Amino acid sequence: xxxxxxxxxxxxxxxxxxxxxxxxxxxxxxxxxxxxxxxxxxxxxxxxxxxxxxxxxxxxxxxxxxxxxxxxxxxxxxxxxxxxxxxxxxxxxxxxxxxxxxxxxxxxxxxxxxxxxxxxxxxxxxxxxxxxxxxxxxxxxxxxxxxxxxxxx
Length: 153
Fold this sequence. Notes:
Region (Disordered): 125-153
Oligomer: single chain
Family: Belongs to the CRISPR-associated Csm2 family.
GO biological process, one term: defense response to virus
Keywords: Antiviral defense, RNA-binding
Order of helices and strands: HHHHHHHH
Radius of gyration: 18 Å
Largest sheet: none
GO molecular function: RNA binding
């Protein structure tokens, strides 16, 4: 995918998330995916799958039970690449991260945090109306001049 991407894993020697994973790598991934036409809808669809795994992991304490769910991300993304729903580089992103995330509960959480940062750095490529991805009713509400918190002008 990219030279040196994830070569240091998600964590530093003290067990803290590496800054590169949270900021630089996440920005680089988001820009690359945007450049090749990855829509925010497709990105969020896969993020929701990862979030579902995280939820299952909080319920099921045995990592071996959720590891197949992590591994299953690879064939799901491959299928969507073949259908030309998502770009090849997203498949590379998922494969590289699954290789790390499947090692342990902690590594999966590192992947989850990294993916969350990629989402945060991604532009909303599906919103053709403008307004930063807000719904039309939300945009109309903002234009009305009402205070969101208290419903007053």
